[in-house]
Amino acid sequence: DGGITQSPKYLFRKEGQNVTLSCEQNLNHDAMYWYRQDPGQGLRLIYYSQIVNDFQKGDIAEGYSVSREKKESFPLTVTSAQKNPTAFYLCASSLNDRGVGNQPQHFGDGTRLSIL
Amino acid sequence: RKEVEQDPGPFNVPEGATVAFNCTYSNSASQSFFWYRQDCRKEPKLLMSVYSSGNEDGRFTAQLNRASQYISLLIRDSKLSDSATYLCVVNIRAGSYQLTFGKGTKLSVIP
């Protein structure tokens, strides 16, 4: 089955710890994205990557880091510098825009991160 | 004007009703528009893209009004399973890969 897999589904972090959220896709999509969703709020873009070995900051990148060493994988690290990390984290992917407008994004089922 | 704005609802409608959601967007140069559906504590799922001429998928109809900068979603013959939050999504930053998500409109279909 083609899709996007996020793990773990639930994650607990102690204050001062870095944690890494996994996102893997087998859709052969070029672009990948990380969003954060807080209760009652819309999705906010953390980082995105259009191609392997390249990524750009989104609207709320502070306290987060990413890497894109493989097309299939786009892990997100929530660092200790992120003071309010409790949220629902969503990874998405899409085909590249080929000049005819954006392609829709397809989401993994998310990781819920909580602070102990 | 907010980048992407939706009425948060909730819209509480009886089964079989027709319900319409509107969404306004700030950038007249935006070219890509989508409706997503998000169930409680789940990921958003693409419901339909919105095309300039309007498009229909079964009980769902999406329309775009560029002059007034809004898109709409019409759901006919509402089912209990339609209960969810409906997200309006627009490429506000035209020419970039970024999509901007509205906060969503909550729909509850009541028996």
Task: Please provide a written account of the structure.
The complex is a heterodimer of chains A (116) and B (111). Chain A has 116 residues and is mostly beta strands. Chain A is 0% helix and 48% strand. Chain A starts with a strand and ends with a strand. Chain B has 111 residues and is mainly beta. Chain B has strands at residues 4-6, 11-14, 19-25, 33-38, 44-49, 55-57, 60-65, 70-75, 84-90, 100-101, 105-110. In chain B, the strands form two sheets. In chain B, strands 2, 4, 5, 9, 10 and 11 form a six-stranded mixed beta sheet that branches. Chain B has a five-stranded antiparallel beta sheet with strand order 1-3-8-7-6, with no helix packed on it. In chain B, a hairpin with a 4-residue loop joins strand 7 (60-65) and strand 8 (70-75). The model of chain B has no long low-confidence stretch (mean pLDDT 93).
The overall strand count of chain B is 11
Largest sheet of chain A: 7 strands, mixed
Share of helical residues of chain A: under 10%
* Global geometry of chain A: globular
Radius of gyration of chain A: 14 Å
The secondary-structure class of chain B comes to mainly beta
Termini distance of chain A? 35 Å
Which residue ranges of chain A are poorly predicted, with pLDDT under 50 across at least 5 consecutive positions? none
Rg of chain B, Cα atoms, Å? 13 Å
Biggest interface, chains and residue tallies:
A-B, 25 and 20 residues
Give the helix tally of chain B. Answer: 0
| Regions with little confidence, pLDDT below 50 for 5+ residues of chain B | none
- Find the structural class of chain A using helix and strand composition: mainly beta
**Biggest sheet of chain B: strands, sense, closure?**
6 strands, mixed
Portion of residues in beta strands of chain A equals over 45%
How far the N terminus sits from the C terminus of chain B, by CA atoms, comes to 37 Å
Summed over residues and divided by their number, the pLDDT of chain B gives a mean of 93
Which overall shape of chain B is indicated by the principal axes computed on the Cα atoms?
globular
Q: Give the mean pLDDT of chain A.
A: 92
> What share of residues are in beta strands of chain B?
over 45%
